[in-house]
Design brief:
With about 70 residues, the chain is an all-alpha fold. The protein has helices at about 1-15, 40-55, 60-70. It has one domain (about 1-70). It is built from three helices and no strands.
């Protein structure tokens, strides 16, 4: 769970849109500006990486429940 949050924040930092990842402790905004947030190939790649990490760190019962939910 903690890893997924950190990876999400890291992916958001790579976009051109600035945001404050340490809010409410710091209001300073950051962005690495590697790509736009509406870049479909990048979004699909991160989605695929998220699915792979979910499958790696979950047991098969969780995966089956997610598939049935969809």
């Amino acid at each position: 769970m903690k890893l997924s949050i950190l990876l999400h924040v890291f992916a958001a930092l790579m976009t051109k849109q600035k945001f404050a990842p340490l809010y409410p402790f710091s209001k300073k905004k950051f962005a690495f500006k590697f790509f736009r947030s509406d870049n479909k190939p990048v979004n699909y790649t991160f989605f695929l990486l998220g699915l792979i990490s979910f499958a790696h760190f979950s047991n098969m019962a969780d995966i089956w429940n997610l598939i049935r939910f969809i």
